[in-house]
Amino acid sequence: MEKIKFWGYRRGNGQVGVRNHILILPTITCATQTAQRVTELVQGTVSFIHPHGCGQIGSDYDQTFKAYVGIGSNPNVYGVIVLGLGCETHQARMIAKEIEKTGKPVEVVSIQDQGGTLQAIADTAKVAVKMVQEASTVMREECYFNELIVATECGGSDACSGLSANPAVGRASDGIVEQGGTAILAETTELIGAEHLLANRAADDTVAKRVYEVIGAIEKRSNLMGVDLRTGNPSPGNIEGGITTLEEKSLGAATKSGSSRLEEIVNYAERPTKKGLVWMDTPGHDIEQLTGMVAGGAQVVLFTSGRGTPTGSPIAPVIKISTNTAMYEKMNENIDLDAGTIIEGIETVDEVGSRIISEIKDVASGKLTKAEILKQHDFGIWRIGPTF
Amino acid sequence: MEKVNALFLNEEDNIATALSEIEKNKKVLVKAGKVEKEIHMKNKIDFGHKFAVIDIQKGEDIKKYGEVIGVATKGILAGEHVHVHNIESKRGSEE
To answer: Residue B94 — pLDDT band, cuts 50, 70, 90?
Structure first.
């Protein structure tokens, strides 16, 4: 087997980034607008809008904290300016302290300490200018696929998802695993009905048991709410596309995991401890699972869609793959690759799988994805408790 | 008989997926492995939607990919559209 190379940024802690962003990380809703102003002023900075970071307690507080720290720690980020308001539950300084453990430059700005929005913008921008210039002196070097964590997800599925793009991503996932890298499967909700297939591929009994536990927990959660999961899944768009039941959607979604052994199941926003195929326990919500996997260290994301979606991440390139050619042509500014060729009988699943691997190599080396070009900076944390 | 674009994935399946629109009253032939079935289409089937390849009784499991995707909520004839109006999920609710 030939080892696949790409050009990446080697970080101080040994991890490899495929981008070199300066992240303005607002730890509270109230700081997101200020963070946006800074990205308008300083080239090379990224940020995102979100409604989190205050009135959160217990395990819900912990999960949001973990997601902030994970996003800042991702090796695609050269340096971070953590921007807080001052009085919120998720304190900017505590988050900065955790991100500092990676060895990257981290600074903290507080709107209340700075004396208001305008001074906070100026101070953050001044620090950002320095960081961006420092970051620009880091050169890409030759790296191998065993340094990559590649996230996989599907959103806006149609009846072709399980026949074209998802199995092709499955081949790519197997390819990444063969190269010694890590592929993440997520969206636990959308694996209900396919769990037996994954449990059969578990590395050991503990992992197999955990498969049934995480699936059971999702079903139990909706039962406790007194609601029927089926009222939200499949979604109206899925149904219009020909998907009838949750199990049908799940069996199609599970093909993204290829045929590799399932090494472990990690919690939301946690970095995998093993190479190979890893399942992250996330909801089916596109942006929440994306955020969880990127916070877990994924540098590149593969995203299949039948109905079409603009989804992107502020810090990780998202390669979008259409399940049918009609959508690829209709939403071309949003979609990077077409797997509809499988439905048309033009290409095999293996051929599209190879095309995806080659795209990962190019994108990891610097080729921009459509979502990056359109500045689609989505971010959303899986909340597991109410706001107080 | 006219050739239609549909996927019949597994010999155990009782449904097939249309890969292009199939007109009502058309006679179609679907194949999976050694199993071959001639079907008289009872409904128009849109791209990506499913139709029954054999008669299905109420309460019977619906199979795609050789796996269970739900259960019939009423009797379904071969060639009928199979969707939310005649099958439902077996998961995600307390029933």
So the answer is: low
Distance from the A375 Cα atom to the nearest Cα atom in chain B, whole angstroms: 32
Contact indicator for A181, A148 with CB cutoff of 8 Å: yes
The Cα A56–Cα A291 span in angstroms is 18
Q: Indicate the number of domains in chain A.
A: 2
How close does chain A come to B60, measured CA to CA in Å? 15
- Distance (Å) of CA A315 to CA A76, A105, A298: 6, 16, 10
Query: From the CA of B17, how many Å to the nearest CA of chain A?
Result: 8
Judge whether A35 lies within some domain.
yes
Q: Count how many Cα atoms sit within 13 Å of the Cα of residue A371 in the half-sphere of its side chain.
A: 25
- First and final C-alpha spacing in chain B: 44
**3-class secondary structure, A85:** coil
Contact A95, A103 (CB under 8 A): no
Task: Show the CA angle centred on residue A49, arms to residues A279 and A127, nearest 5°.
Answer: 105
Which residue, chain included where needed, has tokens 């607002």? A26
Q: Which of A87, A115, A136 is the last residue of a domain?
A: A136
Q: Which two tokens stand for residue A260?
A: 């590799």
| Domain co-membership, A352 together with A205 | yes
Which chain A positions have a beta carbon within 8 Å of B84's beta carbon?
239, 244
Instruction: Give the HSE-up count for residue A60: Cα atoms under 13 Å, Cβ half-sphere.
Output: 13
pTM for the full predicted model:
0.93
Question: pLDDT tens digits, residue range A10-64?
Answer: 999 999 999 999 999 999 999 999 999 999 999 999 999 999 999 999 999 999 9
- Determine the Cα–Cα distance for residues A135 and A328; give it in Å rounded to an integer: 35
The structural domains of chain B, with segments of one domain joined by +, span: 6-88
Q: Which residue of A has its CA nearest to B16?
A: A159
The interface residues of chain B toward chain A in range 15-54, judged by CB-CB distance below 8 A, are: 17-19, 46-50
The arrangement of secondary structure in B6-88, i.e. its CATH architecture, is Roll (2.30)
Q: What is the ipTM, given to two decimal places? A: 0.92
Kindly write down the DSSP assignment for every residue of A3-20, as one continuous string: PPEEEEEE-TTS-EES--
Three-state SS at B90: coil
Measure the CA–CA gap between B42 and B40, rounded to whole angstroms: 6
